[in-house]
Structure formats: structure tokens, C-alpha cells
Automatic annotation (TrEMBL):
<dbReference type="GO" id="GO:0005634">
    <property type="term" value="C:nucleus"/>
</dbReference>
<keyword id="KW-0539">Nucleus</keyword>
<dbReference type="InterPro" id="IPR008978">
    <property type="entry name" value="HSP20-like_chaperone"/>
</dbReference>
<dbReference type="InterPro" id="IPR007052">
    <property type="entry name" value="CS_dom"/>
</dbReference>
<dbReference type="InterPro" id="IPR037895">
    <property type="entry name" value="NUDCD1"/>
</dbReference>
<dbReference type="Pfam" id="PF04969">
    <property type="entry name" value="CS"/>
</dbReference>
<protein>
    <recommendedName>
        <fullName>NudC domain-containing protein 1</fullName>
    </recommendedName>
</protein>
<dbReference type="GO" id="GO:0005737">
    <property type="term" value="C:cytoplasm"/>
</dbReference>
<feature type="domain" description="CS">
    <location>
        <begin position="172"/>
        <end position="261"/>
    </location>
</feature>
<keyword id="KW-0963">Cytoplasm</keyword>
Length: 307
């Protein structure tokens, strides 16, 4: 759509109201689903639109900053971004107001002969300045915001409680296995029940994957390894303290693995004292070189960001 841009001599409030608040779409008086607009080449264009009738209380007054229409999981969805200026009772030093952006997603619901839209998700962000630019990504999965001051998501009370419950649950869980590594190999230790015998254990090696099962239970460890191993040289044993030890031989010697199984969080990496000293020494060497090259002004400009 052609954008009406003001010239340097058009700077009054009347100019802004006349051109800046101009409605680019004009409804066809004879066909209610058709609109007219002028494109950037000066052509008069006709467009057929679909009106979605939706009725929902969305709270205090707002303006629609942006909206997108997309299809996901075979359902039509519409995401809109609403902007509000709201009173901030806790702000005693600033303007006393804050800006909120509410990201609302409507999803098409077909129940029998009834065809309507319902809110599937509502997310709120808060900031201290009106954004220069705010838009929803075309697929509805994220936001793009340009603002003088940052915006942060505001968690609902229920979400905070659920998050805390999840953290408590995670804290109670012990690692299912522990692993160590050298430049040449990796050692995995898995604690197994007292009644488990060698015949109950099944360990499968491949160049890029590992699978460990006990009896007929679901796999204890399974997935793609961070890097390739020499699977024909990999072995495992049962130790006297009823622990299963698995030895993996790295195909590419030297590089350290940041994780054992890609995406798996059930294990815990253990670093021995010699590795700690080696890494600490390399970090000290790196830090001393960087600090040695910094000027006084460079040091003054350094700062840290915290969540």
C-alpha cells in the first residue's frame, strides 16, 4: 500500500492528522467483502477480504499495532499485538505510566455446525517506552521489537507457581548416570539395582548412537552421541559395587564433548582435578593476554549484564 509521506513544509498537527492517520483501505459501497487501496505504483487495487466476527473482553483500551494470519496444524489462526499505556502505581520516580504489549492468538474452532474463533494464548510484555517498531513474525512464533527501553514478558501468577513446582521436581531428581572424558575416551557410570544381572543388561553401540536397557524396561540411555565413536572398541562391565561402567572410544581424539547424548539432561558430567587445573590455567592465560592489551579507557567501558 502506498504510504503518504510528509514533506519538510508539512509539519503541523493538522498535517499529521490529515495524512498520518489516513485509512488506506476503502470499503466498497456495493460489495461489503471488497476494499480498494492505492499501491506504491499509483494503481487502484481491489481486494476481497474475509471478515472474522469475534467477541471477547480484552480489558482496558488499546490500539492494534500489528496482526498476522497463518495456518498451523490445519487450523487458521490470527495473532494480534495490542498496545496500551497504563498507570503504574509502583513507579514513584518516573512518569507513573508503563507500556504494555499484549500478544493474543485466536484459533479457528469448528464444533459441529458452529464456526467460531477462540483465544488460545495471551502473553503480556511491559516496558517504559512506546516501541519504534513492533510486529509478529509471519508464522506467529515470535515478536520483533525495536525500542529505546527493553520489554520483558510478565508472568501470570499461575505460570510462576507451575514453574516453581517444576523446579522443585527437578531438584529432587538424581542423575541417572555420570560421565567423564579424556582426549581419547569417555567413561559412563550407571547405578543399577542389586537384583540386576549381566544377562539383564543390553548395551548397543553404533558409530553415532548408544542404547542401554535393563531387563524389559524402557531404555535407560538412548540417543545420538555428540560425536562419533569407534563402536567396535567400546565395552562395558559390571563392577563390585553394582554399577555399570561403559567405555566409549572417541573416533576423533582431542576435542572435548560439551554433552554426551545430544539434548539429554538425565546425566551429570564429572571433571577430575587434573582437567580443572588444565582449564583454569588456559583461562588465566587468556585473561592475562586480554587485560594486557586493554587500555585504561577500554577497562572503564566494560560492564556486565544480568538477568
Amino acid at each position: 500500500v502506498a504510504e503518504v509521506k510528509l514533506r519538510d513544509d508539512q509539519y503541523t498537527l493538522d498535517h499529521m492528522r490529515a495524512f498520518g492517520m489516513y485509512n488506506y483501505l476503502h470499503l466498497d459501497s456495493w460489495y461489503q467483502d471488497n476494499v480498494y487501496y492505492i499501491d506504491q505504483f499509483g494503481r487502484v487495487m481491489n481486494l476481497s477480504v474475509t471478515l472474522i466476527v469475534f467477541n471477547e473482553e480484552l480489558g482496558s483500551p488499546f490500539i492494534i499495532v500489528h496482526s498476522v494470519s497463518f495456518v498451523k496444524s490445519d487450523k487458521h489462526s490470527v495473532a494480534v499485538l495490542l498496545l496500551r499505556v497504563e498507570k503504574d502505581e509502583l513507579d514513584t520516580k518516573g512518569s507513573g505510566f508503563h507500556i504494555t504489549l499484549e500478544w493474543v492468538t485466536f484459533v479457528e474452532m469448528n464444533k459441529g455446525d458452529e464456526h467460531r474463533y477462540e483465544i488460545s494464548k495471551r502473553r503480556v510484555l511491559e516496558g517504559k517506552s512506546v516501541p519504534h517498531y513492533a510486529a509478529i513474525e509471519p508464522n506467529g512464533d515470535g515478536l520483533m521489537i525495536i525500542s529505546y527501553k527493553p520489554f520483558k514478558f510478565v508472568q501470570e501468577e499461575e505460570e510462576i507457581l507451575e514453574e516453581n513446582d517444576d523446579k522443585k521436581t527437578d531438584e529432587k531428581k538424581d542423575p541417572l548416570y555420570y560421565w567423564q572424558q579424556t582426549e581419547d575416551d569417555l567413561t559412563i557410570t550407571v547405578h543399577i539395582p542389586q537384583d540386576v544381572t549381566k544377562d539383564d543388561i543390553k548395551v548397543q553401540f553404533s558409530p553415532d548412537n548408544i542404547c542401554v536397557t535393563l531387563k524389559d524396561q524402557p531404555a535407560l540411555m538412548e540417543g545420538k552421541l555428540y560425536s562419533s565413536v569407534d563402536h567396535e572398541s567400546c565395552t562395558w562391565i559390571i563392577k563390585e559395587n553394582k554399577s555399570l561402567e561403559i567405555f566409549l572410544i572417541k573416533k576423533n581424539e582431542g576435542p572435548r564433548w560439551p554433552e554426551l547424548i545430544v539434548g539429554d539432561t538425565k546425566g551429570e558430567f564429572i571433571m577430575d582435578s587434573s582437567q580443572c587445573a588444565e582449564i583454569s590455567e588456559s583461562l588465566m592465560h587468556l585473561t592475562s593476554e586480554v587485560m594486557g592489551n586493554m587500555t585504561k579507557n577500554d577497562r572503564r567501558g566494560c560492564y556486565s549484564l544480568e538477568d
